[in-house]
Design brief:
Chains: A alpha+beta (97), B alpha/beta (328), C alpha/beta (450)
Strand content of chain A: 25-35%
Strand order of the largest sheet of chain A: 2-3-4
Radius of gyration of chain A: 13 Å
Distance between the termini of chain A: 24 Å
Oligomer: heterotrimer
Helix content of chain A: 25-40%
Number of strands of chain A: 5
Structural class of chain B: alpha/beta
Strand content of chain B: 5-15%
Chain lengths: 97, 328, 450
């Protein structure tokens, strides 16, 4: 797995204003109204998305992901950072550094 | 199929209505262009809607124009039409004109039917199909059968579900109540069938709303019910075309001279591709009706009500490892 | 003559109710006497078919056997609460603020996944209780996502239910509306009753907030059940309350149950309704609510499927308490202990493993089948003796009020099933008929109608 913990430092991720999501039985479906594209998030990414929408701070989010994914904190950090980075690359999140 | 809304003006204030009640009237030239569009698309029937279409000052002229060009007419009315329109419709041949009367009040029984509607059904009898837009699970349906039998209307009733506009704002039947409505329709169907009275289902019905034991009494329509959410083309008074009224805010296209209905439908379908993964219920994604091709997941506009948005910003701090060590 | 065949007097007739045979019929006194007396009937007579069906021995629902198969996993996330309800018997306002640990919750979910798979179930069924379960919000997030992930991995359908007071921020309410399948929201009717019963503080009621939450959930996917605790002074307004619920919100079900008397409720001057009044207004309210296409629920009402227990007890349900105990009931341990009951099934150990006492599971499976006081009551396979802690504990004196209201409501439900709507209404409208119906000792014998 890639180590994303460095590349995200000092970055903020915001939901793109044209992105909507739908809770599905096995994940979350993201819809980008402006780019007219969709992305289905399975787990653990769906949990990262939800925790972000609920306003959890980064550190607490990583902590909860360790429980949800049954992994250590470094791996949880990687999950969170990888998810954020990937969604930013695809335009669902807007990244500012 | 394409629906032509010749006006948004109405004399009722139905809480589920998509149209804003205002004095928008389709111009004669636009109506002619619409007929041209139907002609080049090979469509034989003009479906005239409103608002209340009989309130358009040129209503009879429009109908006459369509008839002169060889179209059949299907008129959607709430039944509260001016006497002039009623007289006009009385004179037209039954084989050319059908009037779908959406009863906007829901009387508990036939006896509660408004006098004006009684008069309309008496005078237009065999040209009419009584109908109901369902926006509450508390509906009573038996009065529709009474209308069919009491006024000798066509042996059909038309049922529609009140759908939400994509942008919200109108009253609609929440999908949680679909099964309750489905049970009532199933009961009604078993009463109506012995009289040879069938149900015309509008779009948005899904098989899972009906008890499986009722499938045979509902009849052959059942097989197609769950697949009816496609661009049907609603042509608005200004000549713009929407995929359907609930999705009008999502996309509108101009009625161009070079387009047929199939081409226009493809334009809408392409735009909607992104949204089609959304379905009415969370459980739709592993539903056997859908997996076996009996359902596509209900009304797209109703499904879109499940979309969420909230602003959030997540800051990844510079010193993650240090912060995290706090928790371990 | 027959086993588990009951004769319920309604005016000058009897409801013949044989829940294990799946037979219910309205018969006159003569027919009831003949059926009960074991007469033979000529082929073709209407009673012949009934008699034939009743003559076939019918089996009671099987008692569970084998390894535990949890009905659901219950999580009492915390006993803490953000309301100070006048009738609360959970002692919630004084309860410890602590919550179950995340490790315990994760262990419970893992166990439930395994248990569901072993039992060949399709659903992963998890219920949240409190106190107010959503005060332990991090735990709810972890459980929901962990369970959804595990369910997706193993082809299970996640199913979440909760009981809640609805006092939570909008963002969280929206999470619940999207991720949960059933939400049971406590709303005690109109403002005057609700704010008196369910206050946030001495001078602030919770009515506005709860209504706002109910409005949010009305528009969301989760099924909404509005649960109302009925008291002596709210009982006469049930029909209006039911109508208001259906017009102001979009409930799937409305649940009316009567106040359970606790020292706290008596101290607050709150009393349960007269059982006849409750039954009468419940039946009327159910009719009013049905007109909106909404179902009305009373916990001990008739169910077509015969059952040994109307609650989680005896069904291998694992309910995890905030301190990691595994119980078969979500009530406080002290409440069942004073009734001579042991509803504990084990505990989560220090290695975060669920240790379940199989003997305790088997004992409770059997316990729910032993209700001698209910033996000759026609409600025995639906009400099933009611709450094991409050109604049918060992050596319990039957709660006459509970039995009266349950019997009248059950009889009305049976009449409605038979299409005898007017008779059901008449029954619920007149106290003498309700008394004649509900105060018998033995319903197995047909006794002449007085």
């Amino acid at each position: 797995m890639l180590n994303h913990s460095r590349q995200n430092r000092n970055a903020s991720y915001s939901c793109h204003p044209k992105v909507r999501w739908v809770v599905e039985i096995d994940g979350v479906l993201l819809i980008h109204h402006e780019l007219e594209k969709k992305k289905k998030l399975g787990y653990p990414e769906a949990a990262v998305w939800d925790l972000a929408t609920q306003g959890f701070a980064y550190a607490r989010m990583v902590d909860l992901i360790t429980r949800i994914a049954s992994v250590g904190f470094r791996e949880a950090e990687n999950i969170v950072n990888g998810c954020l980075e990937s969604l930013a690359e695809q335009g669902f999140l807007q990244k500012t550094e | 199929m394409a629906n032509i809304s010749i006006t948004t003006k109405c004399n009722k204030k139905c809480r589920y209505c998509f149209a804003s009640n205002s004095d928008n009237f389709m111009e004669g030239q636009t109506f002619e262009q619409t007929l041209d569009f139907l002609e080049r698309s090979g469509i034989k029937e003009v479906r005239i809607l409103g608002g209340e279409p009989t309130l358009h000052p040129g209503f009879s002229v429009f109908v006459r124009a369509a008839l002169n060009r060889g179209f059949g007419i299907l008129l959607f009315s709430n039944g509260y039409m001016p006497e002039s329109a009623l007289c006009f419709l009385e004179e037209l041949p039954a084989e050319k004109v059908k009037i779908l009367v959406n009863v906007v009040t829901n009387p508990e029984s036939f006896d509660g039917l408004d006098k004006r509607l009684v008069s309309l059904f008496q005078r237009l009898n065999t040209k009419t199909i009584p109908g109901l837009n369902i926006d509450t699970p508390s509906i009573q349906l038996d009065f529709l059968l009474d209308i069919v039998l009491g006024f000798n209307t066509m042996r059909k009733v038309r049922l529609g579900l009140a759908h939400p506009k994509a942008e919200g704002g109108n009253h609609f039947l929440h999908p949680r109540y679909y099964p309750a409505v489905g049970r009532k329709i199933a009961e009604f169907s078993s009463k109506a069938r012995p009289y040879g009275v069938g149900i015309l289902f509008d779009c948005g019905f899904v098989p899972c709303m009906f008890p499986e034991s009722s499938f045979s009494s509902i009849g052959p329509e059942m097989a197609e019910l769950g697949k009816r959410c496609n661009p049907i083309l609603d042509i608005l008074p200004d000549g713009q075309v929407a995929s359907c009224f609930p999705l009008a805010s999502l996309q509108q296209e101009m009625l161009r001279e070079d387009l047929t209905d199939t081409e226009l439908r493809n334009v809408f379908s392409k735009k909607q591709e992104t949204f089609r993964s959304m379905m009415l219920y969370k459980k739709c994604s592993n539903c056997t009706y859908r997996q076996h091709g009996h359902c596509t997941g209900g009304c797209l506009s109703a499904s879109m009500q499940r979309q969420r948005f909230s602003k959030f910003t997540l800051t990844v701090p510079d010193c993650q490892g240090t912060l995290l060590s706090h928790f371990f | 003559m027959f086993d588990n065949v009951f004769f319920i007097p309604v005016f000058d007739k009897f409801i013949l109710h044989a829940p294990l045979h799946g037979v219910t019929a309205l018969v006159n006194e003569k027919a009831a006497q003949e059926l009960a007396g074991g007469r033979t009937f000529a082929k073709g007579s209407p009673l012949y078919e009934i008699n034939k069906e009743l003559s076939v021995p019918a089996a009671a629902p099987p008692v569970r056997e084998g390894p535990p198969e949890a009905f659901f996993l219950g999580l009492v996330t915390t006993r803490n609460c953000n309301l100070s309800c006048a009738y609360c018997g959970f002692g919630a306002s004084a309860a410890p603020k602590s919550a179950m640990t995340l490790d315990q919750a994760v262990a419970a979910v893992d166990w439930m996944v395994e248990n569901s798979l072993q039992a060949g179930k399709r659903e992963l069924n998890i219920h949240f209780f409190g106190g107010e379960p959503f005060l332990a919000w991090d735990l709810v997030e972890v459980v929901v996502h962990k369970a959804r992930w595990e369910a997706a991995k193993h082809g299970l359908v996640p199913h979440f239910e909760t009981s809640t007071n609805g006092i939570l921020p909008e963002k969280r309410a929206r999470f619940v509306g999207d991720y949960f399948d059933v939400v049971v929201l406590s709303l005690d009717g109109f403002r005057e009753y609700h704010d008196r019963n369910r206050a946030m503080t001495a001078d602030r009621g919770s009515f506005e907030w709860v209504c706002e939450t109910a409005r949010i959930w009305s528009e969301m996917p989760a099924k909404l059940c509005l649960r109302t605790c009925v008291t002596a002074d709210s009982v006469s307004h049930l029909e209006d309350i039911g109508r208001w619920y259906c017009e102001a919100f979009k409930p799937d079900t409305v649940n009316f149950d009567t106040l359970q008397t606790w020292p706290e409720s008596m101290a607050a001057g709150l009393f349960p309704p007269d059982p006849y009044e409750f039954a009468s207004h419940f039946v009327k309210a159910r009719k009013a609510i049905r007109a909106y296409g909404v179902e009305t629920v009373y916990a001990a009402d008739y169910t077509p499927e015969p059952r040994h227990s109307f609650c989680p007890v005896g069904k291998d349900t694992i309910i995890v308490t905030p301190n990691g105990r595994l119980n078969n009931c979500y009530l406080l341990e002290k409440d069942w202990q004073v009734r001579g009951l042991d509803l504990n099934l084990g505990a989560i150990n220090n290695n975060q493993e669920l240790e379940i006492n199989r003997d305790a599971v088997n004992r409770l499976r059997k316990h729910v089948t032993l209700k001698p006081s209910c033996e000759s009551c026609f409600c025995k396979w639906s009400c099933a003796g009611g709450c094991h802690v409050n109604h049918s504990y060992p050596n319990a004196v039957l709660d006459a009020d509970f039995c009266i209201q349950s019997r009248v409501i059950t009889a009305c439900s049976l009449l409605e099933e038979l299409g005898e709507l007017e008779m059901a209404e008449s029954l619920a409208a007149g106290r003498p008929a309700m008394e004649a119906l509900s105060t018998r000792i033995n319903y197995c014998e047909q006794i002449p109608v007085c």
